[in-house]
Amino acid sequence: MRAIFLAVTIILAAFSGCFGSDDILSEKRGIPGGLTLACLQDSQFTSMELVFLYEEGYEPEASDLLKSRIDQVCEKSTVRIRKEIVNFEHSGSWSSDDIRDQRWDLGADAMQENTLRWYFLFPSGVYQKDSVLGVAVDASTVAIFKDSVADAEGFLGRPSAEEVERSVTVHELGHLLGLVNLVYTSPIDHEDSNNKGHSNNDNSVMYWAIESSDVGNFISGDLPDEYDADDKSDLSGLADGTISAKNQIWS
């Protein structure tokens, strides 16, 4: 049974870059992490659909990788990928409200019968803070800015734009899963003290620098695209109830 919160007033400005900084509406859209239990558990939603809405020329690189990451941590009998070319009909930089408006205008309910649906938008243009490569704006919505991702490619092409996009996309998926400490308090001390909602481990895809256009300057070697042991321990604890989740729009 759904428990709809009548007033979700959490302001995300306290978090760094990759969260939408606009106030989130008091509807069943929720906050990033608001559908964590709906994904991790299968008591209501036995299947999942990952919907990619992208403008022509902005096709996502990491759809199969995202499915793999969901398969690793969420109890779902089926995870489907759906891709659609769309015209966002948007000019200028993107705000969090712009992203939410487009997702809910073009997409369907995140919770429909036994299917959970999360949306990943790939528009042309940049976020209002142009150093941000990706942003999670509510419980089912992420945007990845490939123009900014391309600009973040490292010196001599390493890390490549494709590698950066994969890491950023899995990173934002992690925020939909509630990582790190967005809708719970971890028994493990792995949140970066200066970058709330992010890991202090540079081997985790939830590392704080992944969100930044300077990512190539922060991380040496291959970019992570995996959740680390601490991230997975948090997700396991949320799934079995040993870690309490808050601000859930379904539980």
Task: Describe this structure as you would to a colleague.
By secondary structure, the chain is α/β, with parallel strands linked by helices. It has a single domain, classed as Collagenase (Catalytic Domain) (3-Layer(aba) Sandwich), CATH 3.40.390. Helices cover 26% and strands 14% of the residues. It is built from seven helices and six strands. Strands 1, 2, 3, 4, 5 and 6 form a six-stranded mixed beta sheet that branches. A hairpin with a 2-residue loop joins strand 3 and strand 4. It is globular, with a radius of gyration of 16 Å. Mean pLDDT is 88; it is low at 1-16 and 21-27.
Strand content: 5-15%
What is the typical, i.e. mean, pLDDT? Answer: 88
Reported for the largest beta sheet, the result is: 6 strands, mixed
Number of domains: 1
Report the order of strands and helices. Answer: HEHEHEEEEHHHH
* Computed structural class: alpha/beta
Multimeric state of these chains?
Answer: single chain
First-residue to last-residue Cα separation: 7 Å
What is the helix tally? Answer: 7
Strands, count: 6
Report the radius of gyration as a whole number of Å.
Answer: 16 Å
Which residue ranges are poorly predicted, with pLDDT under 50 across at least 5 consecutive positions?
A: 1-16, 21-27
Shape: globular
What helical percentage do the residues reach?
Answer: 25-40%
Write down the CATH class: Alpha Beta
Name the CATH superfamily assignment: Collagenase (Catalytic Domain)
CATH topology annotation:
Collagenase (Catalytic Domain)
CATH level-two architecture? 3-Layer(aba) Sandwich
